[in-house]
From TrEMBL:
Cross-referenced InterPro entries: DUF38/FTH_CAE_spp, FB224
Protein name per UniProt: DUF38 domain-containing protein
Gene Ontology BP annotations: innate immune response
Residue span, DUF38 domain: 219-343
Taxonomic lineage: Eukaryota, Metazoa, Ecdysozoa, Nematoda, Chromadorea
Length: 401
């Protein structure tokens, strides 16, 4: 049972209370009231009829029984008038999430204007965007109250649709989506916990969306954790510029369309302020010794080639940094593994799949734990000297860097 828009005539006969309950359950999930020109009822349950009035907008009503419709309608009207008071509305909205706020906006134009005056925080926790191509965009929203909503933007032969609502005529799907996206977030007062953006096969459409984003939004979106998937170097760089650097904690870049350089990223405040960097599913082309990544506390990156000289450089930079706690560098090819003991000495532990070194950090009570996973990665970690085995160093003075 699916009502859309406006009904000229709506008639019921021989309805009991359970019939009205079934109708009420359908109507209460609609974003807008069902508009009825003439509503007629014969042989019905009075209390049941009263229970659905709040979901209907009726121009004329015909009943075969006396019922206090005026009282019901007057009560609803009084409730609506109360909600048109900004002071009362502000208190009401404090306990509502973005979905309830949007439902409330549909009550009337006056209530909608009142909401615009109050500017309530939608309390959004997470947003996931999946941008397949120029014909399809999906936006998933999770609120503070664990409510979830999916919005689908799709082109069709005659125009476009947003979920089940269809619109005729030519359209630019990127602009329609961006209008909604900025509208949803414009009053967000606390940082979004997670923004996950996934590109698709048509990277030109993602470029168009970024081109249509106004520069006035640079640094405006408060996000704690950012995940970027299947995007190009240019797209990742542009998206980072829209994020407020004061709140960004984690940057995760996954399955980029192709390998790219990180040379320009170190110039961004967003890059400098974030605490964790994860790069998965692709390699970066910036030479190891040119990487500006030691402002992060946790790092997980991948490179195509790694040499023992690169490992020594990373060991030195890791030890000098006051910030980095863990660095994992994955590689496709280790160019000279046979020389590793010439540079790092004999490992504390050596097995078929990995080797481990403990190295004292000068003028510190910290120790570098270096784990070489054969043919896969080097993992640098920092520990207190007091927490490692007594025989971890080659001599009593301790092997220092």
């Amino acid at each position: 049972m699916n009502f859309e828009g406006f009904l000229d005539f709506f008639e019921i006969k021989n309805w009991n209370f359970s019939d009205f309950e079934s109708l009420k359950n359908i109507l209460k999930h609609r974003n807008i009231k069902l508009q009825v020109s003439i509503f007629a009822a014969t042989n019905f349950d009075k209390d049941g009829l009263k229970s659905i009035f709040q979901f209907l907008k009726i121009q004329k009503i015909k009943l075969d029984q006396k019922i206090d419709c005026d009282g019901v309608m007057e009560s609803i009207e009084k409730s609506r008038k109360i909600l048109e008071n900004p002071l009362i509305m502000k208190n009401v909205l404090e306990d509502l999430g973005c979905f309830d706020i949007e439902r409330l906006r549909k009550v009337s134009k006056s209530v909608r204007n009142c909401i615009e005056i109050v500017k309530p925080d939608p309390k959004i926790r997470k947003i996931a965007l999946k941008i397949e191509d120029s014909n399809f965009i999906r936006m998933d929203i999770c609120s503070k109250f664990q409510e979830n909503l999916s919005i689908f933007y799709q082109k069709n032969l005659d125009g476009y649709s947003v979920n089940r609502a269809s619109f005729n005529g030519p359209c630019d799907l990127s602009k329609i989506f961006l209008t909604d996206f900025t509208q949803i977030l414009k009053n967000q007062r606390v940082p979004i916990e997670l923004l996950d953006i996934q590109g698709g096969s048509n990277d030109q459409f993602m470029d168009l969306i970024l081109k249509n984003c106004s520069p006035k939004f640079f640094g405006q979106f408060q996000v704690q954790n950012l995940i970027l998937q299947r995007l190009s170097d240019y797209q990742v760089f542009q998206i980072l510029k829209f994020i407020d650097s004061k709140f960004l904690e984690t940057i995760t870049i996954m399955d980029a369309l192709k390998s790219f350089s990180l040379d320009d990223y170190s110039k961004l405040d967003q890059w400098k302020m974030a605490k964790q960097l994860v790069i998965e599913g692709f390699s970066i082309t910036t030479p190891i010794q040119n990487l500006e990544i030691f402002n992060f506390s946790n790092l997980d990156i991948k490179v195509p080639n790694l040499s023992i000289e690169d490992v020594i450089h990373l060991k030195t930079k890791f030890s000098e940094s006051q910030t980095v706690m863990k660095l994992k560098i994955n590689f496709e090819r280790f160019t000279n593994p046979e020389n590793i003991e010439n540079f790092l000495r004999r490992p504390y532990s050596q097995k078929s799949h990995n080797s481990i070194w403990f190295i004292r950090i000068p003028n510190s009570q910290k120790c570098l734990h270096l784990n070489y996973v054969i043919s896969r990665s080097f993992i640098f970690s920092r520990f207190d000297v007091s927490s490692i085995p007594e025989d971890a160093f080659p001599n009593r003075l301790g092997y220092q860097i």
